[in-house]
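Appendix B, Record 12. Input sequence as logged:
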Amino acid sequence: MNQERIFQILRAPHISEKSTVVADANNQVVFEVAKTATKPEIKAAVAALFDVKVEGVTTVNAKPKLKRFRGRPGVRSGWKKAYVTLAQGEEIDFLDGATQ
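Logged structural output:
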């Protein structure tokens, strides 16, 4: 897989209260990924980009939200979320020592 496709697949880490609980309990990391990304592509992209061993990938399609703007109905776009299970002892640090 080429470097350009890796950056197209992995959009951003999804940092939330739920993702932090999942990270502590199950050694998982949550990413926002492209809608067209498959589980093997996500696994290969995380392994190549962060140099970690990935055990498994679970994906969830987040449904679009209905919102109103100045009284008119609108729709936010949906997105795809990937729960990536890392091997025992592996870790991804997104802050990279920024808390020092």
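Residues 1 and 80 are 20 Å apart (CA to CA).
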